[in-house]
């Protein structure tokens, strides 16, 4: 075991001598380390594609250590709608305009999407709903244990668990947070900036009436609000960057006294956590048969509520690609597109959160800059541009030159098909690629890919609109990837279609 741990720390690729492997070893095509939103979403995506994925999660259930994300942005809701589970979240959350930048609310109610809003819903509820979904799909979850070491060879990965069991996987995915053991063991660099400020956030009981609302001072932003059950949600900026260790009630008390002169008698915390403005991103999202997703690949301040959205969308980008590689219908090189597409998206989030942190400061110059930004974001074009970025609706993968739709999210159009009215998102519920033909029925023949790609002849009345860009030219046909992004746009002919099918869904099947 010591040798395995050392190899894992060095990220080496060594042969394990499979002929002599432990017969008690449990095999899964994909093992996912971490059962948060990213890991759960990835497991669901793989399961829809027919891949047996297992999650290793140290928690007994989905209880969270401290408060986390407070809601969903529009694009994440769309992704859940693509899988037919959006209503589960909408039934338990509160619809609101949650997109914002540096304290300025950004209304997206005029954006061309069915979900032109956000959803206020705490992460513990989001995780519970996702857990119910993956359990319905039959995903295996190994609870109360952690991955202690792993080593990869040319055909797979051996994974050691803290309870003594051993797993064997074709691929391992680290969804194990900002302190990711998987990333560290691989030796992947995690460049960025150290924290300059930290905040405590918790839910507690108090014995004194607090000073309610948001307060700003030279230290930062502080806030206290009453919850429906009578407890108090507290957020306070610490005068110095907090320790790496989990915060204590004494830490919260000291921080409150430093700001308000009293701690209001805080006691009986139900949750307590610390967040900082540390900003880092993995230099690579993949090393051999091991990949990273979510906070394991990128950490940043929580400004704008974009962290969980990034992780869920990492999972949806990776899931269908990894499934095809595991099934050997697509080459392993397809996994390189995961880093190529998702790394720039996260880099942009890191940039806008760093900007937002700067605008939190309370000196006169920063106040002037914040006022200027508020004035700019009240204008139509800047509002749409920033709102598209913060909501995730403007993501554009670089898939080359061509139609404006190429590399962008496919709109959830109302279609007329041979089977009757259909929504585009309803056709994506099974996470299968989709070719929509808006021209003459029967104009396309995808015979070699017919078992992988769903072909639907359809018509659509009305304009084609994209958030931020507005109306675009209606295409003759579109090839939609399982993650909902357009991989090919056609006109009267099918020029380039076979190349796109082969690139994204593997070479043609033998006759």
Automatic annotation (TrEMBL):
Record's protein name: FAD-dependent monooxygenase
Renumbered residue ranges of the record's region Disordered: 1-22
Keyword Endoplasmic reticulum: no
Swiss-Prot/TrEMBL cofactor(s): FAD
Domain FAD-binding: 29-353
Gene Ontology molecular function, alphabetical: FAD binding; oxidoreductase activity, acting on paired donors, with incorporation or reduction of molecular oxygen, NAD(P)H as one donor, and incorporation of one atom of oxygen
Pfam annotation, one family: FAD_binding_3
Record has Cytoplasm as a keyword: no
Biased composition (Basic and acidic residues): 9-22
Gene3D superfamilies, per database record: 3.30.70.2450, 3.40.30.120, FAD/NAD(P)-binding domain (3.50.50.60)
Record key words, sorted: FAD, Flavoprotein, Monooxygenase, Oxidoreductase
Organism in which the protein naturally occurs: Mesorhizobium neociceri
InterPro entries listed in its UniProt record: FAD-bd, FAD/NAD-bd_sf, RIFMO-like
